[in-house]
Batch of 2 targets.
Target 1
Amino acid sequence: MKDKRFKITLRVKPYVGQYLLNNFSDERNSGGNVVNLRKDAELNNVLKNILCKKSQRYDQRYQNPRSRYSRAIHVVISQDDFQRYGWEISPTDAVQFGRIIERRAKYELYSYIDIYRSIGCSLQDAILRAQEKYNYCEEVWPADSIRRDYSRRNLTDRDFADTLYSQLDKIFVGKLSRK
């Protein structure tokens, strides 16, 4: 007997939805926002852990994820997962799951930008290249938003680099003074 597949709807930020489509688009469904997380065991296990038969967890902040997140992604689950774990995700768990994927998307994007920045590319050019590579058009993830978030993230990296350079300077000057 053929394994039936079920879909659950997950509300996410537009760039999180695009990340899911880029990486986990379901080959069986040519049209629409359908993803299959079986390609990534870690994400698939997280999804299974937050599935429930009836929404049990409730947090007032996430009462209506539709108002916060504009993109609907349909996630394919197997009949076994449907019967064993459930068919619903609480709004709180949906937001937490979205944050996990958001961290991954930002990590990949910022790593890509860092590589181009390290070879001398300007920040704006690196962001435009990254947007093109990951299909993040201006409606999905605006370049200005990426630049602001990237700059905020890099403040800690710059602090670390400054500390590292000052330590290297102390070592270098210390070695020279002994000579």
Note: The chain has a mean pLDDT of 77.
Target 2
Amino acid sequence: MDLFASISTQPESDYAAPPHKGNVVQSSLAIEPQQEVPLPPVTCYPAHVAATNEALVKLVSGIFNESFGFRPDGKPYRMGPKSVTERLRETDYLLIAGDECSGIGYLFGKEIPSSHGRIAWVESMAVLPLYRRNGIATSLVRHFHTLTKMAPRFGFATPNPIAALIATKEIPGTTYIGSCYPPYTVLLLLKEIRQNCFDLRGCHIDEEHFRIRTGFSPLSRSDQREWSPRGTVPEPVWWKSIEHLPNEFEALLVIEK
């Protein structure tokens, strides 16, 4: 398969992922890459412009649909073009690994203001399974961090500890994840931005375990979450606290730069 092979997209479905959710899916450390591939360039689009680009909308929808698991009723989670368009209209940046015709991964996110300072928030990110473990997710996070480097905090919600591992390797600062007892100001910030954040909107924040109860709860996922890096790398202290999250929860990650 060519590195920039076209993505086949699914038609709009009646069972699209809940519109308030923004889930992060990342490359897995537990499986060997199928091939070594050069990193594609990362292309940045203003999200409100991307929302009017039919090719970009279909691309993001297709990558999402290839990357997520199945609902409790057995139907696959889907985010159709309509849902993608609505979400892009409410964010700042869309990053594509590749281009609008042949991308293999995406990230979209925004800076959210609060009385406790801004936070750069990743709302959704995915890499096609065939191209994982080649640094594509890392490249997307790195580019987003560069775009939002003036924001004093970085965060997202995720069911996958691989996403958190990538972020903590790329972004310096004090990390709050798992059973970490974050400062009260961080909790206040998350509650304040809730209505402006797909991940947090309508969700209960479990302060003790620093996670949210979510409507996005696939019974299976395409990632492998066991700790199995390619080299001799120590397991992060927070890893086990989110390695096997119950399906109805997602971990919260906040990095104070």
Note: The radius of gyration is 17 Å.
